[in-house]
Protein 1
Amino acid sequence: MGKLLLLDIDGTLLNSHKQLPTSAREALAKARAQGHELAIATGRAPFMFEELRKDLNIDTYISFNGQYIVHKGKTIHKEALNTETLQSITEFAGQRDHPLVYMNELKMVSSIDFHPDIDESIKSLKFPHPQTEEGFHSDNEIYQALVFCEESEERQYHETFKEVDFVRWHRVSCDILPKGGSKASGIEQLIRATGHSIEDTIAFGDGLNDLQMMEIAGISVAMANGHEKTKAIASHVTSHVDEDGLAKAFSHFGLV
């Protein structure tokens, strides 16, 4: 059995222009031909990378940082945020003028018609500012929410809502996840379906939401453009994503 390759999207698969480098595309194809299994591991919602996974013919993925997992096109795990807790966070954030975005596997909805922090962070993913929809977060399973505040304002959320995790991914935005939810827990769920051992996993990432995944994987690879904390715990640091970093890492570990 080959390796299970767990691939973050932003800053790992996609370069700083949100494009897939030709070298990465070729490396993925060669690795698959060598018998390795490809899986995406991302904080994004499934609808946000549907085009990419179809383009790469990848039907196994960990999304929402572990809250929604699909193996070969079949959903094998999903865990939504508690509705009452989410409503409490919504009210708490509203008192501080911090907007939220709510996401399920199909779409995202904003708590406010427009906010510059939402616009800045969501546009960094090449998506437009989401629209509002009355009752969306109370009438649907929400697998991940985003609260928009600066890092200096984040601690109050950790201290007040200990039943969930807040993971910063952008200058003005934090993911809100069920307690203990992470790409690491997603890997544990996924390997039960694939038959791989944890030693057969190689995780590729760059951000703070990749830390736990990289700690649990058999081998971890950080991109040179990654966060310093991510690079510090990685088994190997490859080149910048804009300098064929993913392809170079595949070559380094003999995957191609």
Protein 2
Amino acid sequence: MRKVMLWLTGWGMSDSSWDAVRSQFPSYEHITPDFSDVTVPMQFFEKVEGELRSLSAQELIVVGWSMGGMLGMRLAAQYPVSGLVLIGTTARFTCEQPDLRKGWHPVVLQRMKRQLSVARERVMDAFVEQMLTPGEREQIGLHVGMDSQKWSTAALIAGLTYLEEEDCRPFLSSLTAPTLVIHGTEDAICSLAAGEELASRLVGANFVRIPDCGHAPHVFVPEAVGDSLKRMVEQLAEEGN
């Protein structure tokens, strides 16, 4: 039986951000699309679809973080998946209201796109700082999981446009695969309230709060994330038997 985990990373992030969790599942084949050379928003999903078309897995678990979670939801709405794991994700990243509990105002993303061309490092540093809690910032490896040199500037700009335009809400009711929603309680990128709302709209979703954690729980508490994912894997095995 071919078992595959498809790992969809967040905006500007390296696939190495998954290493500590991914290593806990040696019996699975691991696939991570490379978004670093994307030039237009539609190519993100095209890359994910391309990986899926090459698979003949009997068990496919899709794990998406932030922007990758949105890609994962769209994928699960169009293709059969065995399980869906959404980390620090929201169904709609932007919100016209000035309320970060509901999403970022599009103007913020538009300003980031303009600044990337002239002050890329400053934009990325500010984003990573916002991802982390004060305690996480003190840890060694502030930039763990980020590879701003690998993603082209065009890919970063395309990713921000994707976040500005994507809206997964219309097809949430069609997602029937077992779903695990994991969210840090101190997430300042996608708020805890957004994660709770997402889980409430997904039939039968299990919601896991990671206390005192920011936007990257799989980086800072990989054991907790791995344990939750292992429970999903065990459940799938029981259902398969």
